[in-house]
Design a protein that fits this description.
Elements (H helix, E strand, L loop, with lengths): L9 E4 L9 E6 L3 E6 L5 E5 H7 E5 L3
Length: about 60
């Protein structure tokens, strides 16, 4: 069963951002994801396949 990602979820990835944070907020979901670093606020676009492969944990938005 594939993981269901939603806008607003906090995703913990395997590798950390250079600022030291492992956590990213999901801003856009689709074939590509837009993620915002919870440490420094930097935003990136990344392929869904890479996000699914590198996800360790998801905190659902309430």
């Amino acid at each position: 069963m594939p993981i269901q990602y939603e806008v607003g979820d906090i995703v913990k990835l395997k590798k950390q951002h250079p600022c030291g944070s492992h956590e990213w907020e999901v801003l856009r979901v689709g074939a590509d994801f837009r993620l915002k670093c919870m440490g420094c606020g930097h935003q990136i676009m990344i392929a869904r396949k890479l996000v699914e492969k590198n996800t360790k944990e998801i905190r659902k938005s309430s």
